[in-house]
Design a protein that fits this description.
The longest helix is centred in the middle third of the chain and has 38 residues. The chain has 158 residues and is mainly alpha-helical.
Length: 158
């Protein structure tokens, strides 16, 4: 299943790289790729958490809100990657842009951690602590896989 997420990520990266060349990404294509990636994540979470039906019924609405809150931050990260690729491919990588890139990268990481922390108690109200720990492990593993794929495609600043 994580292989499917990797394949969707490659599609998203291809869209960003081609968008950098033409100046825009087709929103419908990007939205479809994001939805497919999220469906894969949802399936992994659902299968690997091994919750009872009652636990799942309590967990899933909170998880959906969590995903919604993170989607804003994921969009920021996608914008960061897209802007980087445009600047890199366009040869317009100024010191000012580099400072923005650094600051935005850290702001995204901080916002991401804040959302994750904000949901811990809510998740623990409906499922055991070990399931919550497993959930965050799964989230971290999936995010690490995506970041590893990104690292393969994103060049270093020259």
């Amino acid at each position: 299943m994580t292989h499917n997420i990797s394949m969707v990520l490659v599609l998203i990266l291809a869209l960003f790289m081609s968008a950098a060349a033409v100046g825009q990404v087709e929103n419908a294509e990007l939205d479809a790729a994001r939805a497919q990636m999220q469906t894969g994540r949802d399936q992994i979470i659902r299968e690997d958490l091994q919750l009872s039906e009652d636990e799942l019924a309590g967990f899933w609405p909170i998880y959906e809100q969590y995903v919604s809150d993170l989607s804003v931050i994921r969009d920021r990260k996608a914008t960061l990657v897209g802007r980087f690729m445009q600047a890199y491919q366009g040869g317009e990588f100024s010191d000012e842009f580099a400072v923005w890139l650094i600051e935005e990268n850290f702001a995204i990481k901080e916002a991401w951690a804040e959302v994750q922390k904000a949901y811990v108690d809510q998740f623990m109200d409906v499922v055991p602590a070990q399931a919550v720990a497993r959930f965050y492990q799964l989230e971290n593993k999936l995010d690490a896989e995506i970041d590893a794929q990104l690292a393969l495609f994103i060049p270093l600043v020259e």
